[in-house]
Amino acid sequence: MPLLPWDAVRLSGVMPFATAATTLQQWMDQGLKHIRFSGGEPTLYPWLNEMVKMAEPCKRIAISTNGSAPLKRYLELAELGVDDF
Fold this sequence. Notes:
Blueprint: H1 7-12, H2 17-29, E1 34-37, H3 48-54, E2 60-63, H4 71-80
Parallel strand pairs: 1-2
């Protein structure tokens, strides 16, 4: 049985950027207006900045976080367009 795109996530524990970016673009092409990055601790996701930048056309960009990152990280994300933590 061939591996499906989400199998990489299951096997590695981290969604590859290409999978995340393709999924986000598909949602945006279908009219996505609001997005919340969550699951695990999103501030640890290696490509969160890039995903936030991609989501810039959305009216609202939110992140569910436990608040454990340094304040500088949240300020950086706010600067990129996150408007809800």
